[in-house]
Amino acid sequence: MVLDFLPYKQPRQPRKKLGWIRYITFLASLIFVAALFLTHVGNIERIMFWSFIIGNLLYYAVGIILAFYFKDNRAFCKYVCPVTVFLKPMSYFSMLRIKCDKDKCISCGRCRQVCPMNVDMTDNSRKRANGTECILCLECVKSCPKKAL
């Protein structure tokens, strides 16, 4: 939510193909935590506490740097966030989705312009571009002049 205070509500550039970084972040986090438990490290509570503090500081620092570099508040979510590794498969089967009424749609592109996650809402397919990354902010619905979404 802190990143929403930055000046780039809508992406200023096309999305980069860097989503693979989130899998490396996820794998590094998993290996770190597994190593702590499997090696029976002493004083694990203190290590986990400091890992939490340092991890949060890194989260905000990387998030702010990426937001300014890509001119996109959601750059961290799109490229680095390891949580989406779990969410993407589940959101593919989600019953709560924004759908486009093709009869009403005039293909003006406003929904794509305002979407902070670069999701193509005009495509109702489960395989639409970045479809599993919709955060249900409803900016596309608000901006649609024909109420097609």
Structure description:
It is a single chain. The protein has 2 domains: 1-82, no CATH class; 95-149, Alpha-Beta Plaits, CATH 3.30.70. The protein has 6 helices and no strands. It has helices spanning 21-38, 44-70, 75-79, 84-92, 110-114, 139-143. The radius of gyration is 18 Å and the shape is elongated. The protein starts with 20 loop residues before the first helix and ends in a 6-residue tail after the last helix. The mean pLDDT is 84.
H/E topology pattern: HHHHHH
Structural class: mainly alpha
Q: Low-confidence segments, ≥5 residues, pLDDT <50?
A: none
Q: Please report which band the strand proportion falls in: under 5%, 5-15%, 15-25%, 25-35%, 35-45% or over 45%.
A: under 5%
Number of domains: 2
Q: What about the largest sheet?
A: none
- What's the Cα radius of gyration? 18 Å
The overall pLDDT average reads 84
Percent of residues in helices:
40-55%
**Large-scale geometry:** elongated
Cα distance spanning the termini: 25 Å
Number of strands: 0
Number of helices: 6
